[in-house]
Amino acid sequence: MSHILILARLTMLENARKQVFHVVTLLTLTVVCASVLLSFFTLGVQVKILKDLCMTSILFCGGVLAVALASTAIPGEVESRTCYPTLARPVTRCQLMLGKYFGTLFTVYIGLAVIGLAFAALLVGRHALDGLLILALGYALIEVAIIAAITMCVSTFTTPAVAAMVSFLVFIAGSTKIAYFRPLVENVDNPVAKVMAKGVYHLLPNLESFNFKDALVHRLHVPESYLVQVAVYGVLYAALALTVAKCAFSRKEL
Amino acid sequence: MRRILAVLLAVLASPAIAHGDHCEECLEHHWMKPEYLSETRLQLIFIAGIMSIYIVYQLILWFKRTRRCG
Question: Searching chain B, which residue's CA lies closest to the CA of residue A40?
Fold first, then answer.
């Protein structure tokens, strides 16, 4: 456990120096802060737009950061050959992978925490801060954990560029799975293609389930049983992706 | 410039404005739709099944290893 924590800390320090992390975080922070320009509208609508815009930015920023940082975590170690001295110590490949995963995840969480704090400060200024913000942000963090796990899994098979592209496609397709992907699958005529499309459809993560933007914007009640189900689903999906990544990485020729 | 930006942001966030509190169609969020619930539940059962098989397999391997060493 201590090995994983040390590796996670080192990965966090390494990721915090990457340009992509600073650029994406600052860009999203700018969008969130620029939302105060919407002083044209009456207060109620302004707060709704603010919440909608900020939550969309946070979800997108989290996904992009998870894909960008996780896709280079393991291949970067292998390419620069820095994993050899690490693996020569009493550190297993599984520990190395988990350390890289949690380090990447905590880096993304730091970025999202900064943006979330700015968002909360804007809501406090408009007397519109409520507990639903924590709910929406919490589930956005679970979504990020799934995307990072999928990216980590894909990056053990392929190059960083392909891993980033495939993971980003999974992120987009998963975020629009039932609203757009399902009608497409149902309209396929060829039976073989339909079976394959259905297979891909069921393998994709249902990322829409983690989007509680509507609940935050319109102050809606979400059933607790649904929240528990979605949280368990998110944790298990990430665990499955990491298990596949662990199996692939332990058999990989380094 | 500020007005253009505000209008642009308003267009981007138009679902939030159009989404009135009394619009029944719009009030159907994903936690109320059966297809979302069934899909999440189906995947949950599938993943839980695979993970339990994997854990049992790892436990069998561990028992075999410890018996051989003992």
Answer: B6
Q: Establish how many alpha carbons lie within 13 A of residue A238's alpha carbon, considering only the half-sphere containing its beta carbon.
A: 20
Give the type of residue at A90.
Answer: P
What are the pLDDT digits (tens) for A33-75? 888 776 566 666 788 888 888 999 999 999 999 999 999 988 8
Residue A91: phi, psi to the nearest 5? Answer: -120, 125
Report whether pLDDT(A204) > 60: yes
Q: Is the ipTM of this complex over 0.90?
A: no
Looking at the complex, does the CB of residue A193 fall below 8 Å from at least one CB of chain B?
no
Please name the amino acid found at residue A86.
T
| Entry pTM | 0.86
| A226 vs B: CB within 8 A | yes
